[in-house]
Specification:
Layout (H helix, E strand, L loop, with lengths): L16 E15 L4 E2 L3 E2 L3 E19 L7 E6 L2 E2 L4 H11 L9 E9 L10 H19 L15 H15 L11 E4 L13 E3 L12 E5 L10 H7 L6 H21 L2 H20 L10 H17 L4 E4 L5 E5 L4 H12 L8 E5 L5 E2 L1
Parallel strand pairs: 5-7
Antiparallel strand pairs: 1-4, 1-14, 2-3, 4-7, 4-8, 5-6, 8-9, 10-12, 10-13, 11-12
Helix pairs in contact: 2-3, 5-6
The structure holds (3R)-3-hydroxy-3-methyl-5-(phosphonooxy)pentanoic acid (PMV).
Length: 369
């Protein structure tokens, strides 16, 4: 599919007002997206676990208005007006307007809340942009005529087209948001061995996955809840002139190729090797860009070392990954939950800010409420 396949035909229906609610999960990348080109296209393919408990719930109210050539919207977070979010949403609306030509015909009230604390250092942009994109898709769904889509289908957009376009729109809000529409494993970025993969939107991983990966667990250790020192946009841009960029992008392709076999065979040792290397490579890229920066904190390293010792001692298949921040995601198979939680409580909680962590697991994607 090409971007222009997401431009709708003239709408057939009118809708004066309404309200729609979607709940979208966060996701954690196993092979990282780091480096992009216009318009928000990834320099390498990535793959993520969709999460289950960490999510954003957004209600989008809409009412028809005179189109005055501007966007009209208000943002409410946890019941309070949040004007600080407006510039990001204005940018998003500008980027997606060609694909959602109804945007200036309505006033929108965006009411949003996260299930995780805002100051947790967990990015809400992936779940937030996914939820908003899905709400907009639900509105568009009521405006299009039956069978008026490349997807065809009953009533309006068929499910596959609906989710593809939602992911396409979410990507234009925040790249990794396109992996927060479906689940449990989502690939974003063209990869020659993954059928249907695209730079334009995320697709559910299309091959066999061994039961070892069912209900995979993710405990997020909140090491540092402060604001990120460097936004991910700035970080992505620093990959442009990065001396190791080409090799890194190439490595991501190879890691995805290797994961295909690993997912099929259920080889957890090989899985750990790729996931931890990806996390450290992401941070190594940050540490070697110009300007360079370090997002890990001393406690991030203490946790990593403790996980390595525990794994060596017990033989359990627990490993870590990192986002663009200091928090640590502890990943492990479901059958190790008891021992790993005990380990976290005994040894790792001390490294978390105020002892805080969040228990999550693989999830199946966004839901309309
Ligand atoms: O979606 P962005 O622009 O916030 O970038 C996210 C980048 C990482 O979280 C570091 C990696 C990833 O693939 O999610």
């Amino acid at each position: 599919m090409r971007a222009k396949d997401f431009i709708p035909k003239p709408y057939q229906n009118t809708k004066i007002e309404g309200k729609v609610t979607w709940s979208s999960p966060s996701n954690i990348a196993l092979v990282k997206y780091w480096g992009k080109r216009e318009p928000q296209l990834p320099e390498n393919p990535s793959i993520s676990f969709t999460l289950s408990n960490c999510k954003t719930i957004t209600t989008l109210g809409y009412s028809k208005r005179e189109n005055d050539g501007k966007f009209s919207f208000e943002v409410v977070l946890d019941g309070e007006k949040k004007d600080a979010f407006k510039p990001k949403i204005e940018t998003f609306f500008n980027r997606v307007e060609a694909y959602l030509p109804f945007l200036k015909d309505y006033h929108f009230k965006i009411e949003t809340q996260n299930t995780f604390p805002h100051s947790s250092g967990i990015a809400s942009s992936a779940s937030g942009m996914s939820a908003l994109a899905l709400c907009l898709m639900s509105i568009e769904q009521t405006l299009v005529a039956p069978h008026d889509t490349p997807g065809g289908g009953q009533g309006a957009y068929d499910e596959s087209y609906f989710f593809k376009k939602a992911s396409f729109l979410a990507r234009l809000g925040s790249g990794s948001a396109c992996r927060s529409v479906e689940g449990p494993l989502v690939v974003w970025g063209t990869h020659d061995k993954i059928v249907g993969s695209s730079d334009l939107f995320g697709v559910t991983y299309p091959f066999e996955v061994h039961p070892n990966f069912s209900n995979y667990q993710d405990v997020i250790l909140l090491v540092d809840k402060g604001e990120k020192q460097v936004s991910s946009s700035v970080g992505h841009n620093l990959m442009r002139d990065h001396p190791f960029a080409r090799e890194r992008f190439h490595q991501a392709h190879n890691h995805l190729t290797a994961l295909k076999e690993i997912f099929k065979e259920g080889n957890l040792e090989a899985f750990i090797g790729i996931v931890e290397r990806e996390a450290l490579t992401l941070h190594a890229m940050m540490m070697t860009s110009m300007p360079y920066f370090i997002l890990m904190k001393p406690n991030t390293l203490k946790i990593i070392n403790a996980i390595w010792s525990f794994r060596a001692k017990t033989g359990l298949k627990v490993c870590f990954t990192l986002d663009a921040g200091a928090n640590v995601h502890v990943l492990f198979p479901e059958n190790e939950t008891k021992q790993v939680l005990e380990f976290i409580n005994n040894e790792l909680v001390a490294y978390c800010e105020n002892g805080n962590y969040i228990c999550d697991q693989i999830g199946y994607g966004a839901k309309k409420l």
